[in-house]
Write a structure and sequence with these properties.
The structure is a single chain. The protein has 6 helices and no strands. By secondary structure, the protein is mostly helical. The protein is elongated.
């Protein structure tokens, strides 16, 4: 019976890793579509999101069955519950990549991002790519150094997100109303993508150490009051 349970847990881990690989592909292609006004690539990202959703449903059903049939406790329970949380997070990351692709598609044949902010969004996409790749590595290795690197990439995304607001509020900004909306939306999508990567990093840290950190990386028992 234990062998069956361990095989099911392994499949849960494999499904999470596969979801993460699909998210890697989605955010990379969505960013390329956004920056190059590639309609075909944007369409591919939008269509491929269905595969992430399907994997999430299958993984969640597997986890619920494990909870119902095996009644796991201690470390095993943490693994199953964390997998449920992380599958939802990965699904949301896939949705954010799809949203970016939808913006790219909606502005075709023009580029959604004004030239003045093109480099900023290149950097945002590079950081989001790293978050996605490192998330896959983290799910495979549970290497907490990788978790720390994800948080650093998220900090960079936060700074770049602030840079977009600085540009939009500057008196020299000459973008159209639509460009202003697109910059605001896409910047938010990238910022949230990084936040979700950090959420997974903290879940994996919890699995490894038994401690769950708050939003700024301190152990739960050491959280600062708001």
């Amino acid at each position: 019976m234990r062998e069956i349970f361990e095989a099911e847990l392994k499949q849960v881990g494999d499904d999470l890793t596969e979801m993460s690989r699909l998210v890697e592909s989605a955010i990379s292609r969505a960013g390329q579509a956004l920056l190059t006004a590639d309609l075909q690539l944007a369409q591919q990202v939008i269509a491929a999101d269905h595969a992430i959703d399907t994997l999430e449903r299958a993984l969640d059903e597997r986890c619920v069955l494990l909870l119902a049939q095996q009644a796991p406790v201690a470390t095993d329970l943490r693994i199953v519950v964390s997998a449920l949380r992380m599958s939802a997070t990965l699904e949301r990351m896939g949705d954010l990549a799809r949203h970016i692709a939808q913006v790219a598609r909606g502005r075709y044949p023009a580029r959604a991002i004004a030239p003045d902010l093109h480099r900023t969004f290149e950097q945002m996409n590079e950081a989001a790519d790293r978050v996605a790749r490192r998330t896959t590595t983290l799910l495979t290795t549970r290497d907490l150094t990788v978790a720390a690197n994800i948080e650093r990439d998220d900090d960079l995304l936060d700074r770049l997100h602030q840079d977009t607001f600085t540009a939009l509020l500057d008196s020299s900004w000459s973008g159209t109303a639509q460009e202003t909306v697109d910059v605001t939306l896409v910047g938010r999508y990238y910022e949230r993508f990084g936040d979700h990567g950090v959420s997974i990093a903290k879940r994996v840290t919890y699995l490894v150490t038994g401690d769950f950190a708050d939003d700024r990386g301190a152990p739960a028992g050491q959280r600062a009051t708001a």
